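Let us practice reading a record.
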Amino acid sequence: MTLTAAAAARLDRLSEQRGRPLMLRVAVDGGGCSGFQYRFELVERAEPDDLRIEADGRAALVDPVSLPFLVGSAVDFVDDLGGAQFVVRNPNAASSCGCGVSFSI
């Protein structure tokens, strides 16, 4: 899994706004209209078993249960007409819903 420069830059801005370093936790949960859904959370510290992915001085964290669903994925940040949000570009997803948050394998 990788963290794009755009995602790292957004984390940098969020960290500056809050006055402390933040990391992005990326997880996969069961649910959503396609079977699985991504969950994003801003955190200040990692759990002992997290995998840490770094880019441009910022980090994303993935728990060991979510990792197999995210192998080869890129976490990006997009700001377009649909809104500003973190997104996962997942080559393992066979299909996804219109909102882009849920997917199937």
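A brief commentary: Residues 5-18 form the longest helix (14 residues).
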